[in-house]
Amino acid sequence: MALAAYLQLFAEAIRVASPAQSANLSRVTKQLSIPRQQGLAPVLMIVGTSSHAGKTTLVAALCRWFSNHGIAVAPFKAQNMSLNAAVTRDGAEIGRAQMLQAHAARVVATAAMNPILLKPHTERKSQVIVMGKALSVDDARDYFARHHALWPTVTGALDTLRKEHELIIVEGAGSPAEINLYDRDLVNMKIARYANAPCLLVGDIERGGVFASLYGTVALLPDEERALIRGFVINKFRGDVTLIEPGPAMLEARTGVPTFGVVPYLRDMDLPEEDALGAAPLQMSDADTTIDIAVMKLPHLANFDDFDPLRRTAGVRVRYVGAPDEWGTPDLVIIPGSKTTMHDLEWLRSTGLATCIVRHRTEGRAMIGICGGFQMLGRALFDDHQVESSTQQMQGLGIFDVDTHFSEIKSTVQVSGQVMADRGLLAGARGIDVHGYEIHAGQTTIESAHAVFAISQHGGTAVNAMDGMLDEQGLVLGTYQHGLFHNAELRAALLGNVARMIGATLPAAAHERSLDDSLDRLADHFAAHLDMDAVVRLVGAYA
Questions:
Q1: Is 371 a catalytic residue?
Q2: CA 273, CA 44: separation in Å to the nearest integer?
Q3: Burial state string for 80-104 with b = 16 or more CB within 10 A and e = fewer than 16
């Protein structure tokens, strides 16, 4: 993209625009120029006073805003800890948040955008994924011992992005003032120092004590890093914004750091949550509920954003169930993916939920198992190499007559194909196109006669493969495909079949906001409440 040479003119255009015009600037194709640092794109870093302050959301908003204004922007997070993962086109495993941010930036997601992903394995250990591939399972001490060796990987990934794009928006993790972890930092201010990146510090006013959190964070940083904090963002404000005065001015007098904006709480963003169960169930009355879905609240529940489209469907209530007394009378039970399938299967048994699941099936009610949940529905699980557990063999729930063997090689791939079945949960769905992704170490042999999905693309390669199973009554579906419910036509068919099974009809579907619409709305929201003139000048000044 050829760069225009009028950064200041663009900043001036923002400054003189009316509020209505400013709110809609992200709809305007307008190019700005950001100079490069010795051939490398400049970096803007977003850090927070704590987790859930809104870093991920602000990065996504800024990526979409700059993209809407002609800048080739890309996201970066050196180290992410999450069970909510995504698979890139070339089969790399990265944090789901970075996949979302890449979509916001309108670029293809790559492993360089999240070079280190930590997926909790037990209370003390995590699987370490480096540049998209599983490296090891470490406890905290082992992982911290290798942080020096991982630093070149982190900086190399960032430098690669800076060579390929015009601006990088970097997300920190937790708080940059976690002084107990300072000497092992790979993701916060060490990145800012490396890239000479100005930082915006986000505070969550909903938690209370936002001024103390902002002030305390800055006060705990060394002088060199304190100088890189160039602006505050107060996030998730509710109520009369004038009541926050004169707090920002008083804070600036004490820290020398201005507040770039106070951002109101944004409801119904329709964007995936980053952390497990961060998305609270939508509050629905029994009268408004047509289909009640119970998702098993596994200890290591993975890729929970599989259920976001269900949560947003009119008439559908999604509940996370962690004990038999929470079971109720669900119309559809879902056993989701799991990072540690055998451990979570044992947990289902120890809590009594396994008994509830089997009883639900014998009562002739619908059930779906996804990835690890599919494996649990089989006859037996074998882990001879102790990939997931020290237990080498475990009996499954016995609903499907198949076995699963865990491999030391992990499958991470995007897939697409068509529905083959035409009965039960999938009645009328034959021929519907499906797109999803797989992340699993277990391998389950499925006979072609019982397969549900014909897979034609496997990581961009044309194949003739099979996935999924339906039981004889068509009431229990198992699949390795994450993202299944994001296929709108298939979702409508499946939920329609569940409704018919219980003698009900789903309400007419409301207009569903697309992901791009939601991201544009998000960018508009932040741009309307942040001093974007100051943000643009800040990036230009550090370029």
A1: yes
A2: 23
A3: bbbbbbbbbeebbbbbbbbbbbbbb
Q: What is the mean pLDDT of the chain?
A: 88
Of residues 63, 199, 356, 371, which has the active-site annotation? Answer: 371
pTM for the predicted model, two decimal places: 0.86
Report residue 193's pLDDT band, with 50, 70 and 90 as the boundaries: very high
Strand order in the sheet with 199-204: 73-76, 167-171, 43-48, 199-204, 229-237, 259-264
Residue with tokens 């201010």: 189
Strand partners, 120: 126
**HSE value, Cβ hemisphere, 13 Å, CA-based, for 278:** 18
Q: How far does Cα 526 stand from its chain's mean position?
A: 20
Q: With CA atoms as reference, report the closest residue to 336 among 474, 473, 467, 484.
A: 484
- When pLDDT is cut at 50, 70 and 90, the band that residue 505 belongs to is very high
Which of 121, 360, 482, 529 is catalytic? The answer is: 482
DSSP state of 28: S
482 is catalytic: yes
pLDDT band at 28 (very low <50, low <70, confident <90, very high): very low
Q: Which residue has the tokens 């909903």?
A: 206
